[in-house]
C-alpha cells in the first residue's frame, strides 16, 4: 500500500496514478495534510509515502516526525523544482528521496523506483541558471526589505532584527509580513530557506 500527501486534487490524482503504475501495489490512499497523513499511516501502514513539500508547509520538523511515524515504510518528498536547501533538509528529515515535478513522467517513475530500491535520490548540484539578474523570488524587494530577509536567513527574532537594523519591532513585523507575501513564503522558515538560496554571502552575514 502507498500513500500520497498532496492538497490539490488534480496533483493528488496524477501522483497517485504515477505511483500506482510504478509500484503496482494497488491504488494509493490519499491525505491532504500532514495531520491526515499521520492518521492514514496509522491505518494503512504504507510501504511508500509521497509528500508534497508545499502541502507539508515546508515544515521539515513535522516531516521528520512523519518519517519516524511511517517506519519501516519509506518517505519520498516532491517539490516543484530543484532547491538544494530543501533537498538537504528533506534528507535530514529522513526522506529516502527528493523528486521534482519539472521532469517527464518516465524519469519521475525511475526516480521513485531508485529511491525505493536504494535511496539517495537527492540533487548534488544546482541547475545552470546563471544570468546575472536578481533571483525571481527577491525581485521587487526594497533595500530595507532585503535587509530584513537577510536577517530572517540568520534565524533572528523580530526583536533581534530590530536591534540589528535600528528600527522598531512594530516596523520589523510589518516588513516581515510584506516580505513573506512578496517572495511567496508560507512562514519564516520558508523565507529563511529562500533567502539562503537567493541572497549572496555578502548579503547574509
Word description of this protein:
The chain has 205 residues and is an alpha/beta fold. The chain has 2 domains: 2-118, Rossmann fold; 136-198, Orthogonal Bundle (Arc Repressor Mutant, subunit A). It is 52% helix and 11% strand. The chain has 9 helices and 5 strands, in the order E-H-E-H-E-H-E-H-E-H-H-H-H-H. A 5-stranded parallel sheet has the order 2-1-3-4-5, sandwiched between helices. The longest helix has 15 residues, at 9-23. The N and C termini lie far apart (46 Å). Mean pLDDT is 84; it is low at 125-134 and 200-205.
Secondary-structure element sequence?
EHEHEHEHEHHHHH
User: What is the strand tally?
Assistant: 5
Q: Are there runs of 5+ residues with pLDDT below 50, and where?
A: 125-134, 200-205
Strand content: 5-15%
| Chain-averaged pLDDT | 84
The major β-sheet equals: 5 strands, parallel
Helix coverage percent: 40-55%
What Rg is obtained from the alpha carbons, in whole angstroms? Answer: 19 Å
Q: Describe the strand arrangement of the main beta sheet, using strand numbers.
A: 2-1-3-4-5
Provide the number of structural domains: 2
CATH level 1 class label of the largest domain: Alpha Beta
CATH fold category name of the largest domain: Rossmann fold
The rough form would be described as elongated
Concise account of the structure shown:
The protein is built from nine helices and five strands.
Amino acid at each position: 500500500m502507498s500513500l500520497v500527501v498532496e492538497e490539490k486534487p488534480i496533483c493528488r490524482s496524477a501522483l497517485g496514478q504515477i505511483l500506482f503504475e510504478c509500484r503496482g501495489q494497488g491504488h494509493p490512499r490519499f491525505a491532504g495534510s500532514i495531520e491526515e497523513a499521520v492518521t492514514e499511516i496509522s491505518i494503512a501502514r504504507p510501504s511508500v509515502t509521497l509528500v508534497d513539500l508545499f502541502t507539508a508547509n515546508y515544515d521539515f520538523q513535522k516531516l521528520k516526525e512523519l518519517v519516524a511515524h511511517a517506519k519501516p515504510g519509506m518517505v519520498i518528498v516532491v517539490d516543484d523544482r530543484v532547491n538544494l536547501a530543501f533537498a538537504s533538509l528533506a534528507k535530514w528529515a529522513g526522506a529516502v528521496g527528493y523528486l521534482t515535478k519539472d521532469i517527464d513522467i518516465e524519469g519521475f517513475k525511475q526516480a521513485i523506483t531508485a529511491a525505493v530500491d536504494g535511496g539517495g535520490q537527492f540533487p548534488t548540484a544546482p541547475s545552470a541558471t546563471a544570468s546575472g539578474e536578481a533571483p525571481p523570488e527577491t525581485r521587487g524587494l526594497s533595500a530595507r526589505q532585503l535587509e530584513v530577509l537577510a536577517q530572517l536567513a540568520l534565524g533572528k527574532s523580530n526583536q533581534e532584527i530590530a536591534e540589528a537594523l535600528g528600527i522598531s519591532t512594530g516596523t520589523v513585523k510589518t516588513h516581515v509580513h510584506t516580505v513573506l507575501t512578496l517572495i511567496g513564503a508560507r512562514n519564516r522558515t520558508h523565507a529563511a530557506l529562500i533567502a539562503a538560496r537567493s541572497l549572496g554571502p555578502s548579503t547574509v552575514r
